[in-house]
Amino acid sequence: MKDDNFLNAHNARHMWHPMGHPGALQEKPPRVIKSADGSTITDLNGHSVVDGVGGLWCVNVGYSCQPIKDAIAAQVQELPYYSAFAGTTNAPAIELSYELREMFASDGMGRAFFTSGGSDAVETALRLARQYHKVRGDHGRTKFLSLKKGYHGTHFGGASVNGNNRFRINYEPLLPGCFHLPSPYPYRNPFGETDPARLAQLCAAAMVDEIEFQGADTIAAFIMEPIQGAGGVIVPHESFMGLMREICSRYGILMIADEVITGFGRTGDWSGSRHWGVQPDMMTMAKGITSGYFPFGACMVSDAVAEVFEQGDATDASIFHGYTYSAHPVGAAAALACIRESQRMAINENAAPRGTQLFEGLKALKDKHEMIGDVRGGHGLMAAVELVSDRDTKAPAAPETLTAVFNTAYEAGAMVRIGGNNLLMSPPLVITEQEITIILSALDEGLSAHGG
Ligand code: PMP
């Protein structure tokens, strides 16, 4: 490995970063994270902070999970790669498919299609949803519905159902036939409704209205995150997902739960759908499946969806979709070890009380800091504070203010994440009470230093 001077000289020079301006990053290069331990990360300057972001909502078991590291090393020795295109497979992938079926049986899931990450999983779900209807002879069902503020990755299909125009405008035209519905976001919504239960009803009515307008027999699937993550940790009323489930069933529309963030313990349950008591038709998974130790994901489908494919015509129901790294043996081995460790440590059971601690702490910060317009969380370890320049008008705080708060918080000992005018938090699920306190006091310091 080259020394620190080399790293500083070449940082962002020859590499373009996701979600950043290449020129601006050359002017102000990103922090180099050099090592990590437990829930703490250390940068090139030797500064250590509590990782309030869990990498990118993904390092659920923390950074020191030796069994995953060992499983990856052993699998690289045994079989570093082999294709899973029809004709060959590998042992860890078979075992993982069995484990996932067990783990998500109560969510109604029966089969897994493996991918290299979340965007691939979403793409898989959208394609299989269209194919499902075609196999059944329902050729007209090609459109997709999704929620504004939703995030579903950045492939063309996922970007098309994405509900944030930042991820759309530079890449249009996107997939035709994608329609976006109001999100159950009490702080800002077109109905001016602040009561979450009533808002859930209004959003459900808007969904019915859109379906009637489009024609139910033109719609393949509806995709939603059980709790919207990147869009600002938008927590719906507990009735919301069930209402959407009922509408999908009524109109023959498949429900895809995008569990890329909410899966594997983050909400306090093993899936976000289970948290709301809903069985979707498909689930997309990534992130927590390997805790980020290896790029991996899955699209799971229900037994009923599986049956349509498995008993379908040889041409129509064959899956002409897949990735070189679908069912990658090292990824599957990492996932198996990660799932075992997640269950052994019952990380979901820690997520619930620590999530409550974080949420209550953030609400206390709102009482103290005028610039916090809204605080969201309380369902496991996903939280956001929304910064405003004026509480009455809800005008979003300036991007420079968010950066300044972020930087001070980092210096004070915690990494958080900026998403729009939100500061987002999704720490490892093994985080301790003491480490949550550090995140809260670092944020307090950032907010006190830049506007109060
Ligand atoms: N869906 C959701 C809900 C996500 O949060 C993300 C990533 N943040 C994705 C899909 C895309 O996953 P990936 O970045 O692994 O492609």
Automatic annotation (TrEMBL):
Listed GO MF terms: pyridoxal phosphate binding; transaminase activity
Pfam families listed in its UniProt record: Aminotran_3
Keyword Transferase appears in the UniProt entry: yes
InterPro entries documented for this protein: Aminotrans_3, Aminotrans_3_PPA_site, PyrdxlP-dep_Trfase, PyrdxlP-dep_Trfase_major, PyrdxlP-dep_Trfase_small
UniProtKB keywords: Aminotransferase, Pyridoxal phosphate, Transferase
Cofactor dependency: pyridoxal 5'-phosphate
CDD domains assigned to the protein according to its UniProt record, in alphabetical order: OAT_like
PROSITE patterns reported for this sequence: AA_TRANSFER_CLASS_3 (PS00600)
Gene3D superfamilies for the chain: Aspartate Aminotransferase, domain 1, Type I PLP-dependent aspartate aminotransferase-like (Major domain)
Family label: Belongs to the class-III pyridoxal-phosphate-dependent aminotransferase family.
Protein name: Adenosylmethionine-8-amino-7-oxononanoate aminotransferase
Organism annotation: Litoreibacter ponti
